[in-house]
Recover the amino acids of this structure.
């Protein structure tokens, strides 16, 4: 059998992920903060890119006419901010960073007369503290980490721990909430009677779970105290801080800049892009002219020119896609902007994808970490997608609307007789929403509502005050 060589021409379609398409997909899934960082990096890497307002100085009518050089540019000294006292080196002072819990403890350690050996042990203990100031690692595990030839006895660890627990804030380096409260009670300066202090110590040591349950008769039987003493002891415990280290936890607040603003226009709610998040970019006209005229030394900038135009185009495509998706979502959820959470309609990604002839992944990228400013607050666009819950009349409502109904029912319940999940399911059925008790429990937990037993316990404790 002889083999033959032949040439065949075939035609087929294939989607190629060009660099431009990859960049557009990447920018679409970025949040507003991530996009700003990407733009800032591009401005540093590409000399052809500049912001729209960066060199627009001729339109500033509020300032007096400034001197210009021969090339028509304003002097750098005219653009610099003037100091208050005429000193060109004036700079606004920056606020000193707040100390961390570790720095606060190490500063107190420096003021003690502890030996160098004790200082090392205390530093090891400080490094094991969590953000709330608790020592979560047992001393035996810490001792096992040190070489045996150092000969560190358990009594040395205990002495170092006692010294650390004497530092500010009270309750630091405790192993549990019970230990933390007991440490604070030992250092508490108050005019409470010895009976109240003893009752508070016993509560913190043995009966925190029973106190949380709100079973006051059982507490009185265990403690053998009067109701007044129990009430005062509980108030004393409420004055303590179960998380002594959180005052030094400097979490930076994550601010959200909405990319979509929803407002009423022509009798309907519509989506508009927030101009504050639009990065105004352009290609430097002088550089582009030189490159296109192929002047000497400009040929090497041709790739940068293509990248600059490609980035600007991808950014415009990103906001155009977000606006189209947001507009379709808002058109489906008109009732939400009029009535609130309970008016949310069932909506899934597939509905928007079919309407806009997009892929579901594109809709997902355009709604994830993209926020809208609405009359009810700032919401992620993903919030408006919710599953359907059938009603007995054949219609459907959204899961978010059911959660909102549960929140309203719990908010209006009698404090002494909170609604159980079964009773909430019955009350929802009366409104046409038929769901199982376990579904009520799932939605209640998603809304951050504790079970009826804990709500009843809280009401009992509040009634003692």
């Amino acid at each position: 059998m002889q083999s033959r060589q032949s040439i065949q021409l075939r035609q087929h379609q294939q989607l190629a992920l060009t660099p431009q398409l990859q960049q557009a997909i990447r920018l679409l899934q970025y949040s507003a903060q991530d996009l700003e960082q990407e733009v800032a990096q591009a401005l540093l890497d590409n000399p052809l890119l500049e912001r729209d307002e960066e060199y627009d100085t001729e339109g500033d009518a509020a300032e007096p006419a400034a001197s210009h050089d021969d090339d028509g540019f304003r002097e750098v000294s005219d653009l610099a901010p003037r100091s208050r006292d005429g000193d060109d080196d004036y700079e606004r002072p920056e606020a000193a960073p707040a100390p961390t819990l570790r720095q606060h403890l190490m500063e107190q350690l420096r003021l003690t007369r502890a030996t160098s050996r004790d200082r090392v042990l205390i530093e090891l203990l400080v490094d094991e503290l969590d953000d709330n100031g608790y020592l979560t690692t047992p001393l035996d595990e810490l001792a096992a980490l040190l070489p045996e030839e150092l000969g560190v006895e358990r009594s040395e660890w205990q002495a170092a721990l006692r010294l650390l627990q004497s530092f500010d804030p009270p309750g630091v380096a405790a192993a549990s909430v019970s230990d933390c409260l007991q440490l604070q009670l030992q250092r508490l300066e108050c005019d409470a009677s010895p009976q109240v202090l003893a009752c508070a110590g016993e509560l913190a040591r043995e009966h925190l779970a029973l106190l949380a349950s709100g079973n006051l008769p059982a507490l009185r039987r265990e403690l053998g105290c009067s109701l007044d003493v129990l009430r005062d002891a509980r108030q004393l415990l409420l004055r303590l801080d179960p998380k002594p280290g959180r005052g030094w936890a400097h979490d930076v607040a994550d601010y959200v800049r909405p990319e979509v603003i929803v407002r009423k226009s022509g009798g309907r709610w519509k989506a508009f892009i927030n101009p504050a998040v639009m990065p105004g970019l352009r290609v430097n006209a002088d550089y582009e002219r030189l490159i296109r005229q192929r002047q000497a030394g400009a040929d090497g900038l041709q790739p940068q020119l293509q990248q600059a135009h490609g980035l600007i185009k991808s950014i415009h495509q990103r906001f155009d896609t977000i606006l189209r998706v947001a507009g379709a979502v808002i058109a489906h959820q008109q009732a939400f902007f009029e009535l609130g959470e309970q008016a949310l309609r069932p909506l899934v990604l597939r509905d928007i994808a079919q309407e806009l002839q997009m892929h579901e992944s594109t809709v997902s990228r355009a709604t994830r970490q993209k926020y809208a400013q609405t009359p009810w607050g700032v919401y992620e666009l993903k919030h408006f997608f919710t599953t359907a819950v059938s009603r007995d009349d054949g219609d459907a409502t959204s899961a978010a609307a059911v959660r909102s109904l549960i929140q309203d029912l719990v908010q209006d319940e009698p404090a002494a007789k909170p609604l159980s999940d079964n009773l909430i399911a019955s009350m929802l059925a009366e409104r046409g929403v038929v769901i199982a008790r376990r579904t009520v429990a799932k939605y209640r937990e998603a809304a951050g509502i504790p079970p009826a037993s804990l709500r009843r316990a809280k009401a009992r404790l509040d009634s003692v005050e």
The chain has a mean pLDDT of 82.
